[in-house]
Amino acid sequence: MYNYTDFDAHFVRARTAQFAAQVERRISGALTEDEFKPFRLMNGVYLQLHAYMLRVAIPYGTINPRQMRALAQIADTYDKGYGHFTTRQNIQFNWPKLTDIPAILSDLADVGMHAIQTSGNTIRNVTADHFAGAAADEIEDPRPVAELLRQWSTDHPEFQFLPRKFKIAITGAPNDRAVTRAHDIGLRMVRNAAGAPGFEVIVGGGLGRTPIIGATVRDFLPKADLLPYVEAVLSVYNMLGRRDNKYKARIKITLHETGKEELSRLIEARFVELRAQFGGNDQALLAQIEAAFSAPDLRRADTAAYGAFYKADPVFRSWADTNLAAHRDPDYRIVTISLKKHGDTPGDATSAQMRLIADLSERFGHSEIRISHEQNVILPHVHLSDLPGLHAALRGSGLETANVGLISDIIACPGMDYCALATARSIPVAQQIATRFEELKLEHDIGPLKIKISGCINACGHHHVGHIGILGLDRAGVENYQITLGGDGTETAVIGERAGPGFAYDEIVPAIERLIAAYLKQRENAAETFLQAYRRLGLGPFKAALYPDEGKRNAA
Amino acid sequence: MSRAFTAKIITANDLLAGDVIYLTADDQWSRHHAEAELIEDEAHAQLRLLDAARAKSAVGAYLADARKGQNGPEPVHFREAFRMRGPSNYAHGKQVEPDHV
Questions:
Q1: How many CB pairs under 8 A join A and B?
Q2: Which among A42, A99, A447, B86 is least buried, having the fewest CB atoms inside 10 angstroms?
Q3: ipTM field
């Protein structure tokens, strides 16, 4: 993976020192909160319900064992022994004291990490396919481009005060695992007729209060044009984006108000100007970065033992069936380590778990680790013969849950248990759904299903693109949960449809249970997934299951 | 006609620790909701909020609905109940602090 150059290391150190001085001035009273707030946000520091929160970037979800151990050390030294992995491939510490944050940032800088631009109206942490560099369906590893974007966007003078935050996601595979259609800019690698790799450029996607699937402004952008093109998009948005209304400031509204055609025309015109100015420097830098992402030397070994173990051990088999994905090398698998043990908080890892993951990545995974936007941990390169040993080492650690892609593999934002913006809780809803379906022993029978929960309209939990989305709201001083159905975050992205009136906190789990019962009853066969059944049947039967009394009333 | 004023307390977060604090009648910041000053007059509430905004150790002071309880003011809205207690997924925050009431 990419290691900091002297320039990077110096930049991060200088910023850490600068922020330490700002913290000192805030504590002395020389800075008011209004003056300090923009500084702390630029450095990932929020003030939440019960404490400060520090959001640390894990650029494009890639982290090495040394960095993972540093996160564990920070969790033990300055927090409560755990961290929360988020839907944007960041990690959040929920309990730091303001006085400790400069020391935490210094510890992060020691291992080439930072919290810069994890908040504020800037270009945020660039997210990527969590299977990048390993996936069987990948055209190219998108992470060198993601790293180029990170370097370009970090402290970019033109883009430090954008109308609103700006999120970029990138995938090197046609199967979109990075939700590119719901980002301000989504980059999806495709090949042109000549077989050369380039990007489909999607602009103006986003969730939040106005969910919009992005528009494709370029079907094929040559790879070499990427950086000037992205800068052109930002430049046009920076000029047109509305600064008069926070709720209309994202590029999705610019797209909506300007129209795709005119926005594309402006981007293309700006691109022509900018491209000439780049002069090939970006390509020289990209070549250097690409060298840092060379694939590990995959080993050759006998794979027969894997097959025998798979047949003999049902617990291992269940885990292998759900938590493994195809690797570009047929003797390897991509392993997803679930952070969704039934009843636990989605995305949370204890310091002991972080250390175990670091150790296991070294023992079995060529020292590579990824964090997914679905709040799980990935070991991208594990040889078949190492899978039984890896699984055995995970057992008993709380990291061995065989549920990836199933009903208990829920995305949930922190919600009103932590977040100052939340209107309802999301974590306990996720915990209860997972626990309930574990009791019913139904989740493997239900099959692939994505439930996504947000505790407010800002949609950090991506509820709009969940097959089942749950949105927690405050209705007259009581928590209330709205259900959306049929959402999809992949290359066939769709915003879910609202099913009807919301449910009270103690009604939401039974409502989900009725929904699943309706699916199991109506599906054509066990191979038809919830989403497929929804697409075939439409809202009707699911609505009837959610609101049985309404049917009775109508019948009466 | 404007709505009748309902009782309030003033709450904020501590500058250094970030935890939830409440303004008491004698101008101290307490960790306990029950020790907050219950303000039943709108004009007094606005004055007290100005006092709170001047405090160096408090961040983001605001008025929150509260009602009179047996041991002092109690929260009305669930958000304030969570702030008073801590998160529901772990025994962290005020609910496990030794002198939690």
A1: 68
A2: A99
A3: 0.95
Q: Report yes or no: B14 and B59 within 8 Å, Cβ to Cβ.
A: yes
From the CA of A44, how many Å to the nearest CA of chain B? Answer: 15
- Per-residue pLDDT of A436-495, as tens digits, reads 999 999 999 999 999 999 999 999 999 999 999 999 999 999 999 999 999 999 999 999
Task: Identify the pLDDT of residue B97.
Answer: 83
CB-CB neighbors (< 8 A) of B15 in chain A: 26-27, 98
C-alpha span between A263 and A187 (Å, rounded)? 17
| CATH top-level class of A6-110 | alpha beta
Q: Would you say domain A142-292 falls under CATH 1.20.1260.10?
A: no
Contact B59 A33 (CB under 8 A): yes
Spans of chain B, pLDDT less than 70: 1-2, 98-101
**What are the tokens at A309?**
């173990």
A142-292 and A411-555 have identical folds: yes
Q: What does the alpha-carbon distance between residue A212 and residue A252 come to, in Å, rounded to a whole number?
A: 7
Which of B9, B16, B24, B7 minimizes the C-alpha distance to B83? B9
- What is the reported pLDDT for B3? 76
Separation of alpha carbons A37 and A150, rounded Å:
23
According to the model, what pLDDT value does residue A549 have?
87
Of A52, A427, A431, nearest to B18 by CB-CB distance is A52
Q: Is A525 helix (H, G, I), strand (E, B) or coil?
A: coil
User: Residue B88 is nearest to which of A27, A33, A417, comparing CB atoms?
Assistant: A417
Q: Cβ contacts (< 8 Å) between A99 and chain B: which residues?
A: 16
Only one residue has tokens 């990527």, namely A128
Which numeric CATH code is attached to A411-555? Answer: 3.30.413.10
| pLDDT tier, A430 (very low <50, low <70, confident <90, very high otherwise) | very high
Domain ranges across chain A: 6-110, 142-292, 313-394, 411-555
Find out whether A187 and A226 touch, Cβ atoms under 8 Å: yes
Which CATH number does A313-394 carry? 3.30.70
Tokens 């066939």 sit on residue: A492
Chain A residues in contact with B56 (beta carbon < 8 A): 29
Rounded Cα gap, residues A27 and B56, in angstroms:
8
Number of other residues whose CB lies within 10 A of the CB of residue A518: 19
Interchain contact A29–B (C-beta under 8 A):
yes
Contacts B93 to A, Cβ<8 Å = 50-51
pTM, two decimal places: 0.96
Compute the distance between CA of residue A256 and CA of residue A265 in angstroms, rounded to an integer.
15
Can you tell me the mean pLDDT for A91-101? 98
